[in-house]
User: Fold this.
Amino acid sequence: MSAARPLTTLRAVALTAALPLLLTACGYGSEAKKDDAPKADVAADAKKLSATEVRIGYFPNLTHATALVGLQEGLIAKELGATTIKPQSFNAGPSEIEALNGGSLDIGFIGPSPSINAYVKSKGSNLRIISGSASGGVKLVVNPAKIKTLDDLKGKNIATPQKGNTQDVAFLNWIAEKGWKVDPESGKGDVSVVRTDNKVTPDAFKSGSIDGAWVPEPTASKLVADGGSVLLDETALWPDKKFVITNIIVSQKFLKEHPDVVEAVLTGTVKTNEWINANPDKAKASANAKLAAEGGKPLDAKVIDPAWPSILITDDPLAATLKTQSEWAVKAKLIEQPDLNGIYDLKLLNKVLKAAGKPEVSDAGLGAK
Assistant:
């Protein structure tokens, strides 16, 4: 077994960035900020729904393209009539879940791991997954001078965003299937798994502190732009090359009290996804414009151009893959066997899909009764 190299400085950063498994995510930090969505024209006779506003959370990530484009183009607001969208931009799952639990957020775009963890922690009382949003967009990028084959990962330092987050769980499972050993808590073993905030990862890669990273877009393409090489696209590991990377969740209280508003939001996301898939270049530009509004500058073409086509925008929550991801986390001893019965409520989504002439989607037997 190869010993992992000392990483005193980087581990100090990683300890700060690596949150407990509870409510982890694949974002960029933990702060939230209010956002101003484009206002759709609201006629005097616009339809009146049961809530005057709906608070929607998302990350400024390409894997949240449905939210980015839907807000930027006003496609979600258009379906809400006189109901106003109050967008909130988050940089990690913990703060988004905290907002949902605290009653300051109604609907959110978020990854599968925080959805699972929050649902289990609350004993099934705080959220429901009501739709899919995106699949894929996760890659293993390495320093090609140090790593040329997958077997070369042994003894190397590979970053994931946070302990127990979606990419961390997938990488630990891949390591286990190779027959290698890694302690899931410390990340030490045949491969040194270094939990590093995605904001830090590009600099750590350029400095040589890490030899590669298993990360979502656009971080993966940022590493490639800095000289990295894609050794593995995670889609290759999944049946049909699909796995959930972003869900849409809702507060159970809001769903119960305002199902008409939730249905209107879902009508907007379904139409947004259809527009994205029909107009990929325009959608890419729209998402980048929204990211520029969030961060002050757009992504460089050498980053967004390869990143964008690796993400599949879909209404399907790919529920069976969420179940698999939870099983991987159990196998890694990061969580105990969860009870996920009731985590999905796809009735309104399937109603919207049926009205649009699209096929209904499955909850893999994990639907609310």
